[in-house]
Design a protein that fits this description.
Chain lengths: 93, 193
């Protein structure tokens, strides 16, 4: 009985703590005891498990945007910077 | 890697020091090295093509003018991004109903149906990318910037916080809020059950 009560209290605390620290967990910013705390809680809480998995998928998806081809503008930017610097007085050039 | 003369390319630090001494060619090398990536980041941050190009140009001009005062406490790249993102935030704030102020009313991304395959099966599809890009644009600028720098650009927490001139704790807090807001916008994609 006492064990159940302790478990319920711990579950409640962790249920508030885990969502607030889910990013830290996924970024590898938690210590070993905190990692255990997250893992223990998500093993028994479907809501928090869903949250952590959802964030994990989100981070994966955001990372794929990095590889998207983007316009090459360096030449145009350089030409514009050159031309605008030419218009400046020598002390500012 | 070597340059056309067979020498290894000069580091940013070397080019910055040469540029500070008035070597325009060294500065031009820095422009060529960083302009495309800066432009792409500014686009992801929410500027359109023309704005991103203008801001990139403005960023390098300011960098040139500010080189004398650049004390190399951060990398050139971090410093450059700080200039660029500050200018981008100013532009976005000037837009009508722009980001820059935290909105309490984020609307789920339209056109996403629950019946579509989950992200684990289709994360690399154009549809998901488009949904992510759209959801990113829905975020207020102050939450979008941390997500773009850390999760899209792949910069470290330290670099990203330095670019946004935030302490690491404040940066992480905004990053988490941004991710949670995105999660809300993309809920149908992110549901695993």
């Amino acid at each position: 009985m006492l064990r159940r009560a302790v478990h319920r209290i711990r579950f409640g605390h962790d249920h508030g703590w885990v969502p607030a620290h889910a990013s830290d967990y996924l970024d590898g910013d938690l210590g070993p005891r905190e990692i255990v705390r997250v893992q223990r809680h998500v093993a028994e809480c479907a809501e928090c498990r869903e949250l952590v998995r959802g964030l994990q998928t989100l981070l994966y998806g955001l990372g794929t945007l990095r590889g998207e081809p983007s316009e090459r503008v360096a030449g145009t930017v350089l030409a514009s910077v050159r031309s605008r610097l030419r218009g400046l007085p020598p002390t500012e050039r | 890697m070597t340059d056309v003369s067979g020498h290894p390319p000069a580091s940013d630090q070397t080019l910055v020091r040469r540029a500070r001494d008035g070597d325009m060619a060294a500065f031009e090398e820095l422009v060529m090295r960083h302009a495309d990536r800066l432009f792409a980041s500014l686009r992801r941050f929410g500027l359109d093509d023309a704005e991103a190009q203008e801001v990139a140009q403005e960023t390098f001009l300011r960098a040139w003018r500010g080189l004398v005062g650049f004390e190399e406490r951060s990398s050139f790249f971090t410093w450059l991004y700080r200039i660029g993102f500050n200018e981008a935030q100013r532009r976005l704030a000037r837009r009508p109903a722009a980001g820059g102020v935290v909105s309490s009313e984020l609307h789920p991304v339209e056109g996403i149906e629950d019946s579509r395959p989950g992200p684990s099966a289709s994360a690399e599809t154009e549809e998901l990318r488009a949904a992510l890009a759209k959801a990113l644009r829905e975020l207020p600028a102050e939450l979008r910037a941390p997500v773009v720098l850390r999760d899209v650009e792949g910069l470290s927490t330290r670099q990203s916080a330095a670019i946004l001139e935030l302490g690491e704790a404040a940066f992480k807090s905004r990053l988490h809020r941004g991710r949670m807001a995105l999660r809300g916008l993309l809920a149908p994609w992110l549901a695993t059950s």
